[in-house]
Amino acid sequence: MLSLQIKQWHAHAGFSMAAAIGTCSPPVVMALLIPVMGSGGTGTAMCGIAGLLDVRGCHAPEALARLCLGMGDTMIHRGPDDGGVWSDPGGGVALGHRRLSIIDTSAAGHQPMATADGAGVLTFNGEIYNFQALRRELEAQGERFASHGDTEVLLAGLRRHGADFIRRLDGMYAFAYWDAVGRSLLLARDPFGEKPLYLYRSEGLVAFASEVSAFATLPGFDDTIATDTLAAYCLFQYVPAPAAIYRAVAKLPPGAVVRISAAGEETAVGRFRFRASAEATSARPLADWADELEEILVDTIRTRLISDVPLGAFLSGGVDSSTVVAIAGKRLNRSLDTCSIGFAGAEDSEHEEARAVARLLGTRHEDEICDPDIADVAVEIGGLLDEPNGDSSCLPTFMLSRLTRRRVTVALSGDGGDEMFGGYGRYFATLADEARWRAGELPHPEWRPDLAYYSSRMFTLTERDVGILFGGVPAGLAARLAGLRRELRQDGRPLGNRLREADARDYLPGAVLAKVDRMSMRHSLEVRAPLLGLRVAEFAARLPADACFGAGGGKLVLKEVARRYLPDEWLARPKKGFGIPMRGWGDRLLLERAHALLRPGDNRLAAWVGQANIDAFLADQSTAPMTYRLWAVVVLESWLRRHPGRPG
Asked: Which pTM value belongs to this model?
């Protein structure tokens, strides 16, 4: 099930259950609007958004607008085409926008966008793929539109229907809508967290932004970083929501809808939740499931092909991206520009497979074979991220985005296929262990595989590594892991479906989509993920376990669809990853760089963990270097060197 639960919210740390919004005041019909860098607008835009609520009334409208403008200037890479700031002349609120024009590149879509009567103002990052259908519904209700993009549709829908309109959206988005009548700010993030949104409170201000770095421009920014947060990053390779790297900053969780009053009171409005089926088997034939999925994919991909700028696709040669490109070409008659990345001398590089699929499908294909210095790359990655991300595929994603942007402005991807349909190799290892446990082949009954057990297969550093580096697992992280174990051991649904759900909830937004957003936005490239479409996700949530997992591996139903477009022998190939082929390729180089970066008296990390613990960790790694663990720590140290931060 994928549903938006309005007024049904499960509290998370950093998000309060605040009182109701205060009394209404008349709508604002005039505003201070500052256009920035260009005059073009966009009905649809990949961009950066920012804004401020002055809850104490300490800032003049012009001063608040300048602060908002400064926040937006840190995100020009997210929106190089245009920008603007809207400020209420009565004071109290400012909204900012940086934009990359995609659909309706006329000035009619300039953001922030206000309703004709000034009762609502919107700053919006993302795409609403079903905006044309929503527009027709709104026109039937009496709405009239000046542009042909989705921003005006979203604005009109929110003005007319409020937060209930969000449940109708099929898209990737993060937006802020100022209700001038109710004097409140509505914040929302898409169901899987494709687009980022952060919150920060300080000195009478409530601020939001697409990237954490925007808050550093605010006076008195609290750059405290908790040791627990660094430990969580090392374990998971990202900072899990709702936490952010800074203690005073919070991520709006994927699918969350929050309302903040002009006085700063926060109310949780609703939350999208992906919950996988409790069914292990189904009498319905796999071919029937595939028939349904194929038609959903055709409709979903059709809406993702709408663009007023050049559009192409990432093509790795794997099942997910190849299926997307095949359907676009064979069912929708769109032969795409495709791009891929490979690594010189790497046995598990997919670029040859990508070339073969491109020839088969007749795409205009280009690839790039890389031979980077892995140690130097790890250092550079830290400077490109607003939060540390230890996923080694940040590098190929960065390079693929750079290559793709030379040809197109929008790219389709296969992201989400593994989580929706069960494709990761770690799923099969865990399912095999569960079968062994049920057969009595594991030596102790308490070793029953569960999601906490499964999660250990995902950790960049093990709990043992974290214990060495941090002098023990910090209390906050230990409590989080204990809570995870308690929660998940009570869940009786099929293990395979629980694995899909867990990754869709945590790993997908925290590592995968954050990486794609940051690396693509560095090149002002929009990436669209059809396999995370609303109808696709609703379908995936209904799947019984045996439609995903079986003797043929994982993603059974998606492969059944792919078989209708691609040869059987291609589908039988083993899955390859998209990360850097690090083991045996850069172990010693990265270990040497780690020693150089973390030497006594010349590193930032020691302020949190102590030099003795760093030395113990490096000594432990020197005996049998594990490149992924070293990568995560080198990225963290590099990030700390390039961003403000102090222990606390």
From this structure: 0.90
